[in-house]
Amino acid sequence: MTALIEELKSIASPTVVDARGVSCPGPILAAKKQIGGVAVGSVMEVLATDSGTLKDIPAWCKKMGHDFLGSFDEAGSIHLFLRKAK
Asked: Which residues span the domain enclosing 7?
C-alpha cells in the first residue's frame, strides 16, 4: 500500500458524502450539495461506486478551486478526498 493511501486512510473527515450505488451525475451532485456545509480548510470524503467519479470529482475540484487530495478503492467503494479551499 502506498504512503498516499495510508495518509488518506488516516484522515478523519467530519463530512462524508455517501453516494455509493448512485450513477453519474449523482456523486458529483451530492458533493456539490454538501460542500456548502464544510468549513474552509476542512476535508470532505466522497464514497462512490461509479468509476466515473474518479474523473468527475478531481475535475470539479479544479473548476471550483478546491484541493483534490486523492482516492483509493476499498471493499468495492471508491473513497475520494478533497479540501475546501474557499
From this structure: 3-83
